[in-house]
Backbone:
């Protein structure tokens, strides 16, 4: 554990900032890192699934449009054959 | 086929529940790293799942180059997406573990660097597919990239043995191995869960891609017949 170069009183800490020297103390909580990693895992997978879902929805819209166009073409054909 | 897909999804879910149970409730806390070591149980299987995606991309691309088909192209593209998704997981969970174990989020360790390179190759594949169009030439070019991209996979795997570095090697045993039976079960469940998940996602993604190719062909046929359909997504 590194120590400041000089011992500071509360009043000194209010008026000066001093850099630590030597190795830094640990700043990371293991629990927080574990939860973050697990959250990232599911977030990435959910984003991918949402992307696939969106692609599927876009295809459904295009398929419906194609079906409507086929229906209209079939209606035109039956109308023209009826007129003939 | 739908029944098999849903059975696979159910099996994946059950395996994940078992894995979570083992990771958080049964597997002991590692003596030197503490609880952060539990990242290992889904970081390593994610790397394995990335290999599965990359292998799917390789075989799909190879099949497409030999005999072009929608199925081969779809498998190649789905594999590349899986490689990027699981690669992103290893490139984020690994540094979170490293923050505690190494005191740094990232080092240019051989395995980290080669893994990053591999993910960038598959990102390039997807960018190419997204922006270069859907023509035969673009698909062939992407397939060639999918085949060449696999060349980096053995380099990732053997980089630690070949060039050293800081990355642990507990599975090969030289780093000491997993010292508790529940650690081994937790990791085994992780491998099973991520294998099933990768298979499930590859199946779903490839199915969507195949359906999209069929839809595009139907739209082209409709236009040839004089029907006014949309051609854009």
Residues:
């Amino acid at each position: 554990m590194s120590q400041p170069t000089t011992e500071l009183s509360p009043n000194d800490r209010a008026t000066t900032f001093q850099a630590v020297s030597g190795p830094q103390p640990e700043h990371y909580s293991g629990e927080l890192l574990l939860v973050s990693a697990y959250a990232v895992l599911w977030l990435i997978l959910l984003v991918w699934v949402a992307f696939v879902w969106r692609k599927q929805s876009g295809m459904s819209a295009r398929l419906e449009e194609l079906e409507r166009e086929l229906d209209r073409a079939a209606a035109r054909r039956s109308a023209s054959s009826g007129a003939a | 086929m739908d029944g098999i897909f849903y059975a696979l999804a159910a099996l994946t879910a059950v395996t994940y529940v078992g894995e979570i149970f083992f990771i958080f409730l049964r597997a002991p806390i590692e003596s030197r790293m503490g609880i952060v070591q539990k990242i290992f149980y889904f970081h390593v299987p994610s790397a394995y799942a990335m290999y599965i995606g990359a292998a799917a991309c390789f075989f799909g691309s190879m099949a497409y180059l030999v005999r072009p088909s929608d199925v081969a192209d779809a498998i190649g593209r789905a594999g590349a997406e899986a490689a990027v998704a699981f690669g992103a997981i290893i490139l984020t969970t690994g540094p979170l573990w490293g923050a505690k174990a190494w005191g740094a989020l990232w080092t240019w360790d051989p395995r980290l660097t080669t893994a990053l390179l591999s993910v960038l190759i598959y990102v390039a594949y997807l960018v190419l597919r997204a922006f270069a169009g859907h023509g035969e030439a673009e698909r062939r070019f992407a397939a060639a990239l999918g085949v060449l991209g696999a060349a980096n996979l053995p380099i990732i795997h053997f980089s630690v043995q070949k060039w050293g570095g800081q990355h642990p090697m507990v599975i090969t045993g030289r780093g000491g191995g997993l010292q508790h039976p529940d650690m081994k079960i937790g990791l085994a469940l992780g491998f099973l869960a991520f294998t099933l998940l990768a298979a499930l996602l590859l199946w779903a993604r490839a199915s969507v891609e195949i359906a999209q190719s069929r839809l595009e062909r139907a739209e082209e046929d409709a236009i040839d017949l004089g029907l006014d359909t949309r051609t854009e997504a």
User: Anything to note?
Assistant: Chain B has seven helices and no strands.
